[in-house]
Amino acid sequence: MTFLDLRSMPSGTRLTADLVIIGAGPAGLTLARELADTRARILIVESGGETFEQGVQALNRVENVGDPGKRDTMALSRGYTGELAWLNDVPPFELRNRLVGGSSHTWVGKCAAFDEIDFSERSWVPGSGWPMPRAALVDALDRAAEMLNLGPNLYDASLCRRLTSPPADLGINVDLLRTFFWQFSHGRGRRGEPLRFAGFASDMQAGTIDILTHATVTRLIPDESGHRIASLEARTLEGASATVTAGVMALCCGGIENARLLLASNDVCKDGIGNARDVVGRYLADHPRTVVARFDRARIAEIAEHFGFYGLTHGRATHFYLRGLALSPRLQRRENLLNCAAYPVQTLSADDPWLALKRLRGNAAATRWRDVRTVLSDPGLFASGLRRRLIMKRGLPRKIDEIRFDTMVEQRPNPESRVTLSTRRDRLGMPLARVDWKIGWMEIASVARLAELISAEFWRVGLPQPRMESWVLDEDFKRAPFSDMAHPACTTRMGTDPATSVVDPNGCVHGMAGLYIAGSSVFPTSGHANPTLMIVAMTMRLADHLRTVLQRPAAAEVRAAPQALRK
């Protein structure tokens, strides 16, 4: 792969490729990587460069007119801790990374696959149902897990049979609550550091792929018929422009920008590309997050023992899974609830020995001597910790001030929750995205029911009772505080009916030949799980389809090499 920089090219440059991928985040780089062994000339167009640049990041600004700011309740952060705590201060729907690698620069690597029920058409969830069953994605999910350096794609109680030292059976009623696991993606050879997709760009050896940086796409241009994509316009912050022509384009810009770019491309299609039925930008979903329960120090070790990390060996590596709880599918059907899960979050003490050791390894001079004393104060803790980690494959024993249970819930498809265009414009003259995110009663009721069941079942089986949040105890749904989790989805949703979807089951925009979309924006429903594993799997599925598309004569007619600019 060769890096090009639009800032160093003459304004008005014209480029041509077989496939143009817009966005060099997880979806865009996965698509390029999967097609690297083809003959297709591929050009990736990225708004940023290889490092964070404040001017480019400012293009993420939105006009937010909906939740969570619209709710008459206390503010709630996204729940990030430690080195990523600054992410809590980024305004809703602006936590996106414009650089090679995209939002993988600020994720924690948390992954899980969607559940069977997420793909089902549910009578109590209007607009639910995917155009394929979960079984159709098993192969893609396994390929995605391998790419993300994950263990087996098991996230329910069946995983326990594979764990080296599984959690005890607590006797929780599985008709109400089920065990749910998450795992974490790590870079190869860099345990503890989340996978950064930028490495795929630098490691890709394909001579048929180029990446154009500092090139923000401001407009997609159909041909005169308005039914086939023809070219795009890209600009630098300094005002230089380029036109890129291709027979096939893949929009991989995320849940907000995919919709924004389609709506702003209204020169030929007056309502925006793919928006003849006014669906682009609708059904905006995220993962409403809140805290439902807290456990103090008195019996905190007991909760940490049952709801922590559990490991297994797979592919010569140890993979750790975090245990939490979710509403059972039977309960969801019986009580008309949404899919919802709770996971433990530990607040570490400042004098936690393992935290002190991590600071020492990082050469934190300001706290060095205090950290040395902390590490030396309890040598037995390290001996027991190594035994738990290396032999039992369990999480390390930590000194904890508090454990809380956070929840994330899927959203009912709501066409009034949406992205439109603002009258305000960014530095490049593009309308800002106007975001009207709506959190409904079904979402809040599902979270409240999960919280209620955790308290009741913990009491029944003899686990410590949590301190429940006041809005849960008072059933004051209007005061329930939520944050977004920077997981925007469903704004260009997939389906067979153009009246309720933007792309077909292959990811092609209805009525616009040659234009495809990848990423969470094509999800018909959002599930409760973090989206990256599903994004990668769905993108791999799209790559399988594009292998055939790129062999057709229509794509061959525009075959030319972007590297001609480097002569």
TrEMBL record:
Gene3D superfamilies: FAD/NAD(P)-binding domain
Residue ranges annotated for the FAD/NAD(P)-binding domain, each copy included: 18-71
Residue span(s) of domain Glucose-methanol-choline oxidoreductase N-terminal: 204-288
Domain Glucose-methanol-choline oxidoreductase C-terminal: 413-538
InterPro entries in the cross-refs: FAD/NAD-bd_sf, FAD/NAD-binding_dom, GMC_OxRdtase_N, GMC_OxRtase_C, P2Ox-like
UniProt entry keywords in alphabetical sequence: FAD, Flavoprotein, Oxidoreductase
UniProt-listed Pfam families: GMC_oxred_C (PF05199), GMC_oxred_N (PF00732), Pyr_redox_2 (PF07992)
SUPFAM superfamilies in the record: FAD/NAD(P)-binding domain
Single GO MF descriptor: flavin adenine dinucleotide binding
Residues of the signal peptide: none
Cofactor requirements of the protein: FAD
Family statement: Belongs to the GMC oxidoreductase family.
Protein name stated in the entry: Glucose-methanol-choline oxidoreductase
Higher taxonomy: Bacteria, Pseudomonadati, Pseudomonadota, Alphaproteobacteria, Hyphomicrobiales
